[in-house]
């Protein structure tokens, strides 16, 4: 027989967690998602309810963190919930150029950041046109002509599936914070240590233990001009 006191405490804790999830600061929300991830079915049900309540709003990285817990759970109930309510993922895949970002969302949901990074460059080349697709890298003048909608979609995918750590907007924030000084930016995002550039791919960190802004690599390996165009693009102006 269940001890009534124990049952009451558990119910109280779950109710408190539900309140923290919806009204707490980002830090509290993130901690609450992590706690709910340990509670099995009860936690999953609260996360599903939370995502449904949030569905009419643009997703944040907190929504992405909740989604990742359900995506990783792989129970029949969570699979059915995600397929019904988020069939292509949690980020709306908007494109003005007819680019399909479905696989990029899947790779990021799988936390396969290395494969997602390669695909990101491919998608940027698709945005630039057939010549860029063939050469597999970008001219900075091509970046200037990218649509804001597509860049924001790519950025949101990285941002929301990385707990807010990765994405062009994160790199831009850090870049502006160091006065647009590239030599100060590289060590902050883990692309350079002292005088030594981080070697691709083995010296890069392909998980969430990486420094903020570490990914995506975009066109960094071919110089700074394309990246400068990316970080200065009107897409990031609010």
Automatic annotation (TrEMBL):
GO cellular component terms attached to this protein's record: outer membrane-bounded periplasmic space
A UniProt-annotated Pfam family: GUN4_N
Ranges where the GUN4 N-terminal ARM-like repeat domain occurs: 8-87
Domain of life: Bacteria
Name the UniProt record assigns to this protein: GUN4 domain-containing protein
GUN4-like domain ranges (all copies): 95-234
InterPro entries linked to this entry: ARM-type_fold, GUN4-like, GUN4-like_sf, GUN4_N
Entry's Gene Ontology molecular function annotations: tetrapyrrole binding
Gene3D superfamilies, alphabetized: 1.25.40.620, Gun4-like
């Amino acid at each position: 027989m269940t001890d009534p006191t124990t049952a009451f405490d558990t119910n109280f804790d779950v109710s408190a967690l539900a309140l923290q999830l919806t009204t707490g600061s980002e830090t509290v929300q993130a901690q609450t998602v992590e706690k709910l991830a340990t509670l099995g079915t009860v936690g999953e049900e609260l996360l599903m309810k939370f995502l449904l309540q949030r569905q009419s709003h643009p997703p944040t990285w907190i929504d992405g963190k909740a989604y990742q817990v359900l995506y990783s759970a792989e129970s029949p109930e969570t699979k059915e919930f995600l397929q019904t309510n988020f069939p292509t993922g949690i980020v709306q895949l908007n494109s003005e150029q007819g680019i399909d970002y479905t696989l990029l969302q899947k790779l990021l949901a799988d936390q396969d950041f290395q494969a997602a990074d390669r695909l990101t460059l491919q998608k940027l080349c698709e945005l630039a046109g057939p010549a860029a697709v063939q050469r597999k890298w970008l001219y900075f003048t091509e970046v200037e002509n990218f649509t804001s909608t597509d860049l924001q979609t790519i950025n949101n995918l990285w941002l929301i599936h990385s707990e807010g750590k990765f994405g062009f907007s994160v790199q831009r924030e850090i870049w502006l914070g160091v006065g647009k000084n590239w030599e100060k930016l590289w060590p902050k995002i883990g692309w350079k240590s002292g005088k030594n550039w981080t070697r691709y791919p083995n010296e890069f960190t392909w998980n969430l233990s990486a420094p903020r802004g570490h990914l995506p690599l975009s066109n960094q390996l071919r110089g700074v001009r394309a990246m400068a165009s990316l970080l200065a693009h009107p897409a990031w102006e609010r």
